[in-house]
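Here is one chain, start to finish.
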Amino acid sequence: MRSDSRAAQVVELAAEQGGVVTSRQARAVTSVSVQQLKRMVDSGVLERLHHGLYRLGRMPEDVHLEERVAWLALDPDVVVWERLDQPVPTGVLSHRTGAALLGLGDLDADVVELTAIRRIRLSLPGVVVYRGVLSREDWQLVDGLPVTTPVRTIADLAAAGTDAGHLASVVRDALTRGLVTVAEVVAVLAPHAFEYGHRALDGPGFLEVLIAQAGVPTTMLAVADLARKTTTTTAPTVAAAEAGQLGVAALMQAVTESPQARDALLRSLSVAIGQSAAGRISSGAGAAAPGRRVADDTSTTGSDRTARPGRSARPAKVSDR
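Its structure:
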């Protein structure tokens, strides 16, 4: 009876941790023995994933299982809720893995990448652990997992020398979804500008190139043209730009930092599109030329993502950042 009770406690513990539990956690919380864990595996209650790591049997597929297991392995003695109560839960998912979990960019996350506050070596295949400084402001929860924030993810990817094309896709998605501000991105890009071929500490120039490389849709540029006419009171940042042309960075800053400006710009674009459509109907093909030009110029370098390939079984390693 006592054995059944402990097995039930192990199941409950695993369920509270996303279906995964370590043998150390199980023994510390439920006093279950190694032999009892083995019997639970033999009976199909638990599935052994790796040495000292188990998941509940017959659980629905967890698309983040590899990330969850890697993060648990950073500190296998402490249960999840206690770790997440800490300012820094030993380490967090970061770099390409962080970008994938946040839905940013189109990088191939073929390994699980984490950043830990101390040097940690894991025997898990396909896991890379960086050593770095972390604070509570550097991470957030995504599906119950601690993940670097968008701005910290951009900083980590730039520091790791991620190729400019993939970095640009991450920056584009973070800005257009309003997850970061232009000022934040400029600040974290500046220390790495020289390594990417820009003037030292030229964060704004670095950002401009990334935005252009990512292929900002021409509809956004059309909004910029309308902004100088419609947002004098609601978007001082936009109004301060040159009357003839609005820089891409200034546009991005306006639409990501000011909800009022963003709403005004979208309303203006909607009106302009409606007027253009009416003009085409009343004036025929000749009046529709400007509308066609915008459509023809639209960038084709959007963020369509393909399914992530399976991770290769690379040996785990540790990198000092």
